[in-house]
Amino acid sequence: MRRRFAARLGQSIVVTFIVATIAFVAIRAAPGDPFSYDRLSPRARDNLRQQWGWDRPVPEQYARYLANIARGDFGYSLVKQEPVSTALTQALPRTLLLACTALVLSFAIGIGLGVLQAARGGWFDRVSSAVILICYSVPDFWGALVMLTVFALWWPLFPPGDMVTAVEHDYMAAWPAFIDRLRHLILPVASLTLLSLASIARYQRAAMLDVLPSDYVRTARAKGVAERGLIWRHAFRNALTPMVTILGLTLPAFLGGAIFIERVFNWPGLGTLAADAIEARDYDLVTGTVIVGAVLVIVGNLIADLLHAAIDPRVRDQHD
Amino acid sequence: MRSSVSFIAIATLLTACSGEKPASSSTVTGGTVILALFGDAISIYPPSVVDLTGRLVQDQVFDRLAEIGQDLNTVGDKGFAPRLAKSWKWASDSMSIAFSIDPRARWHDGKPVMASDVRFSLNAFKDPKFESPVTALVTNIDSVHVQDSLTAVMWFKKHTPEQFYDAAYQVIIMPEHVYGGIPADQMRTSPVARNPIGSGRFRFVRWEPGVQMELVADTNNYRGRPKLDRVIIAPNADASASATRLLAKAVDLADNYPLARAGELDTSSVARRMVWANFGGVFLALNPNDRKSKNAPHPIFSDRRTRRALSMAVDRVAMLKNVFGADGKLAHGPFSASSPYADTTLHPLPYDTIAAKAAFDSAGWRVGANGIRAKNGRPLRFAIAVSPSPTRRQYAELLQAEFKKLGVQVDIEAVDNKTLNERQNARDYDALMASFVSDPSASGLRQNWGTEGIGPDGQNFLKYSSKTFDALLDTATKSFDPATRQRYTSRAFQTILDDAPAIFLYDLFVVQGLNRRIVTAPMRTDEWWANLADWTIAPGKQLDRDKIGLKPGNP
Predict the structure, then answer these.
(1) Which of B3, B189, B508 to mutate to test the interface with A (most CBs of A within 10 A)?
(2) Among A138, A146, A166, B230, which one is most buried in terms of CB atoms within 10 A?
């Protein structure tokens, strides 16, 4: 197991390096650069490019970038007017708060719903499947805008975006400040949860339907195990294994979805940062956000792998 | 470089809703205004400011020597109001102006404003290492001589009608003791550049990139405390979400209100509509050179007859109604109708499809069997490059349809802003949906349309060159007589209209939503934010955030 972990770690480093290299080259291959403003003359732009070393060949720029990374320097963001590491350390926790909360909620609700659909069947399965399909079909951006309009404007239960109430939050006591933060979290988390809830529920339902006709379930039923215990203690535990794989795949979807959700709710996280950086051709920031995104995805998959091995003895034995 | 293309808003016209009275005489103080602007500032260090948000912040935190008047006169010093300079005295030969610094003026760190700060500021704006877009605008200012601690004498190379305007409008005065020790090549990354210390009526508090910037009232300011306590500038990437936040009272001003939703402002009890018609316009630029081999003439647009035919093929009035309904403003030429030097009596080429067809025929573009015109086997086909702006894309599609009627095939190349900008600079396009925004002086048009604007330091990206235009504009800008200036400027514009290097489509304007509890001060036509410090909120209409007051410890 330890060897497998070490091997996966080594693979992860190689993958991160490849992803960072692609991001570094791709953003430089895109037309424009951070100084492509209308108001700057061509000569001023050329001088600034020279000052920042962007007139040098890409391999040379990359070698310098790697040398800086080795020293822990991710470069400077011209969009954010601060070091890339500062911008990332500010944005990352915000996105993690959003994504992790939504991840937990979507898995909790999705798995529960999937199990109930498979176990109950009938009208509950049909109605909930239809509702889930509708949620699944709604484009993320539009869905978030609808949530914003309905629950912040027409029926103003929640704040219309931002992480906290501007100005007033600074003057709140600890508890009201916490509640304020929580209230601002609800709509973006709900939007992001709805994004993946449907697919998780569908996967869980299918996994349960696969497991329920199994011999051991039939045997347990024949032995007189109560239906509730049969579903949750016997069938559910075995149907959970595929969900661990889904967990690893859901994380990239959450990071992608965060770009839209953060934009609509003015949530200054990694998604907004990446979108702004790409739009402004903020070279170092683009590469930095891609590296962080890649690391998150790799870590998510690594955790999923480890969990998989932990809960499925066959996987563990295979690697041991 | 007085005028610039695209997103820099230098000149504006803000039309407030009827029924609002100016609050300049009001003594009401307090309140917080949250401005949801489209995008964060790129820089707030004055010589590096290139965007609207940066300019707004700069104008609240820093002062100039004198402020341009409501009428935006740029000739001489008529209408200019004292700011850091409490008075000024012209030399007998007009080659220098002695500015007397207001002895009450203090920087936000408490140190007095000195004449040496004026010298430092001019040198910073002129320093080529800063690559300031203002550098080209202050070339006529030679130097500043510090006569005594409160007298700065500004010397000019030539006596020109706009030398005072150059000195007062373009040069922002900055504290030498704060910025003086930082080398130019380190300024962009210096923390000092993002924590400005100025002498304006608002002091800078903090900048959380992508989240907000906070300005608070400088209660001891030599020009008096601002009427508002605080201004929050919050970047908003999504216009529709920003509009919803305005109606939910989370922000007070939503910039770039979606046109499709603008109607809801007229019936809303929360917010009202404002229209900011800046000194800019949108046009279809026709590249005179081949996009592949840059020095070869463009196979279509190098011919004046073909350019004129294309101009006459476009029903600009119908397109305007189609896109903007009753709100749009038709372009009259390479200027906005709201600019001080506008002349709406000029004669753009009319919409005349018969004349257009004849012009195409005479230029050798004949209709082929497939309905597309061709000359020597080359079809009359070109591409229009356009940014993601929905309005401009709509216009590109309408132009495509209009041209098709006359046998011209158009492909639309939809690209992002940076790509469009890069193609514009590299001249890698056939036709391109471009925009300009100019400042109060027509002399800036030299940089956009004059021969001197061609080259690495200019902004004449179309490489339009006309000796007639150059001579007329030169005569106009050298004249001290307003009537003569206008007459020659108009003739210069007519020259461009006749040459048709571009098709001028519509004047730029932005719909904004403003919370109804806010009473704006008299609006200056170049910058809607110019009198932001005098906006007020009546005590009876204040929200919770208005009542917070200044933070403890803030003077």
Answers:
(1) B189
(2) B230
The closest alpha carbon to A191, from A101, A271, A127, belongs to: A101
Per-residue pLDDT reduced to its tens digit, B353-378: 999 999 999 999 999 989 999 999 99
Q: Please state whether the predicted TM-score (pTM) of the whole model is above 0.90.
A: no
What CATH number did the domain enclosing A146 receive?
1.10.3720.10
> How distant, in Å, are the alpha carbons of A143, B141, B487 from that of B476?
56, 20, 7
**Tens-place pLDDT, residues B238-274:** 899 999 999 999 999 999 899 889 999 999 999 999 9
A177 contacts chain B (CB < 8 A): no
Domain ranges of chain B: 16-45+53-61+200-276+512-548, 66-179, 280-507
Inter-chain touch B43–A81, beta carbons under 8 Å: yes
Q: Are B346 and B361 in contact (CB under 8 A)?
A: no
pLDDT of A316:
67
Sign for the CA dihedral angle at B75, B78, B82, B86 comes to: positive
Class of domain B280-507: alpha beta
Q: Is the ipTM of this complex over 0.90?
A: no
Domain extent, residue A161, equals: 90-271
Report chain A residues whose CB lies below 8 A from the CB of B250. 159-162, 165-166
CATH classification for the domain delimited by B66-179, as one of 3.40.50.12780, 3.90.76.10, 1.20.120.530, 3.40.50.300: 3.90.76.10
Angle (nearest 5°) at CA B464 between B49 and B48: 10
- Kindly state whether residue A317 falls inside one of the protein's structural domains: no
State which residue of chain A sits closest to B251, comparing Cα positions. Answer: A166
In the block, which residue shows the tokens 């401009």? B392
Interchain contact A180–B (C-beta under 8 A)? no
User: pLDDT tens for residues A32-82?
Assistant: 888 887 767 778 888 888 888 888 999 999 999 999 988 889 999 988 888
The count of domains in chain A is 1
Q: Is residue A309 part of a domain?
A: no
Residue A261 at interface with chain B, using a CB cutoff of 8 Å: no
Residues B131, A40 contacting (CB under 8 angstroms): yes
* CB contact A73 to B (< 8 Å): no
CATH topology of domain B16-45+53-61+200-276+512-548: D-Maltodextrin-Binding Protein; domain 2 (3.40.190)
User: Pick from A39, A80, A91: which is nearest to B50 by CB?
Assistant: A39
Beta bridge partners of B173: B63
A15–chain B nearest CA distance, Å: 29
Taking a contact as any Cβ pair under 8 Å apart, which residues of chain A between 156 and 175 contact chain B? Answer: 156, 159-163, 165-168, 170-171
Residue A27 resides in a domain: no
- Identify the closest residue of chain B to A49 by CA–CA distance: B131
